[in-house]
Design a protein that fits this description.
26% of the residues lie in helices and 21% in strands. With 117 residues, the chain is α+β, with helices and mostly antiparallel strands. Helix 2 crosses helix 3. The structure holds guanosine-5'-monophosphate and zinc ion (ZN).
Length: 117
Amino acid sequence: MAGEPQDDCLFCKIVDGSIPATIVRETETTVAFRDINPQAPTHVLVIPKAHHKDAAALAAEAPGLAADVLRETQAVADEEQLESYRIVFNTGGGAGQTVWHAHAHVLGGRGLAWPPG
Ligand code: 5GP
Ligand code: ZN
């Protein structure tokens, strides 16, 4: 069911602590942790604690929670003192999504080309 933890989900396991992560922020509804394979000096993932498979599902199933995630991306950018940064929600395999638990990438600390390719 939407929002319920999934046994086979890596990010649900980070939420429940059974897989370790370098957590930089946590709220009642979200966790922010460093990406294991950083693509920029700052590369933090912000996730809802509840399982929703991608950003589209999160927005449709729990819009308030989607707002929490977005607010946290801003908090991460502030904490990391990022002047310019990029928030990315890869949505679907063709866009590079590999983990099927909604997550926002916060990328910064270097120049970021646009369009991204
Ligand atoms: P996606 O490709 O789905 O948009 O992003 C998934 C991200 O999760 C990738 O950037 C990948 O490096 C990161 N990732 C995959 N496995 C782990 C892990 O075990 N721990 C952490 N911290 N990040 C992970
Ligand atoms: Zn999950």
